[in-house]
Amino acid sequence: MAVARGLVATDAGMQVLWHRKPFTHVVDYDTWEEELLDDAGIVRHIETGSVVPLSTGMDGAWEFIVRWGEDPALTEAEEQHVAVKSEPYLLISETDVRVSGIEHITGNAEEDEGFAVSLPPGRWSVTTHLIDAEALGEALDFVVLIKPDRGEQHRTDVQPFDRPQ
């Protein structure tokens, strides 16, 4: 199992897992806006497996751990402090996978924010776990688990977590 970790900030209310290839043409605000300004554009990229929403829709910075491999798992302590878990999302990676604020998606690697995830090319199933960091006693807000896609149904909502009824 491989691991990456980092603090990721957003002023657009969403941190995302994404891969660069579908966004090579995004080089400025106008080209970013054409792809990702509204929910319809975001959903299109979620459905094609190029973007996975990770966060709750608030501006700020949170600590993320990403684990990937055949059977990545939460630690026992993390499992005890999961506040909510997403349904699986599809990620189709080819190269250059990152976690960043959605506003930092770009085709230009020199402008990267967030952190890299050394995920091999392939079809992946991604779940996000919101952790009660205060109860855990550790600066950890989200754990993202990535395993090979086995053809399961994938969530396509912009918000990764269902709101309580």
Instruction: Give me the CATH fold name.
Output: Substrate Binding Domain Of DNAk, Chain A, domain 1
The run of helices and strands is EEHHEEHEEEEEHE
Indicate the radius of gyration in whole angstroms: 15 Å
The CATH superfamily bears the name Competence, DNA-entry nuclease inhibitor, ComJ
Q: Tell me, briefly, the overall form.
A: globular
CATH top level is: Mainly Beta
> Number of folding domains?
1
User: What is the level-2 CATH architecture name?
Assistant: Sandwich
Count of individual beta strands: 10
In terms of DSSP E residues, the strand content is: 35-45%
Q: Report low-confidence residues grouped into runs of 5 or more.
A: none
Q: Give the mean pLDDT.
A: 92
Task: Please give the share of residues in helix.
Answer: 10-25%
Largest sheet data: 6 strands, mixed
Class from helix and strand fractions: alpha+beta
Span from first to last CA? 36 Å
Tally of contiguous helical segments: 4
Blueprint (SSEs and pairs):
Blueprint: E1 2-10, E2 15-19, H1 29-36, H2 39-47, E3 51-53, E4 60-68, H3 76-80, E5 82-85, E6 89-93, E7 97-101, E8 115-117, E9 122-131, H4 133-136, E10 142-148
Parallel strand pairs: 4-10
Antiparallel strand pairs: 1-4, 2-3, 2-7, 5-9, 6-9, 7-8, 9-10
Short description:
With 165 residues, this protein is α+β, with helices and mostly antiparallel strands. It is built from four helices and ten strands; from the N terminus they run ββααββαβββββαβ.
